Predict the 3D structure of the following.
Amino acid sequence: MTFMIPLQGDMVRLCKNLAKKRLEKERLNYELVRIDNCTRFMQRGFTILPGSRFESICSDVVPIAALIEAEQEQLTKQNEYTQ
């Protein structure tokens, strides 16, 4: 049985920090590519079948116009309740 004890703790910490940053960068890249692909599907008139196991892949990608419309509806409802 062999044991290895790192003698330079700073180097281990540096290596872990670099690995963490690389994972964060990879995750960001994955998310950006996912969003880009979802918008391409939407622009071409396609979507993922509701109820499929992949439905959630594009569920958080929403056109800006839809967000603005929803916000305006919410403000209209709030104004109706306050009057």
Observations:
- DSSP finds two helices and no strands in the chain.
- The radius of gyration is 23 Å.
- Residues 9-43 form the longest helix (35 residues).
- The chain has a mean pLDDT of 89.
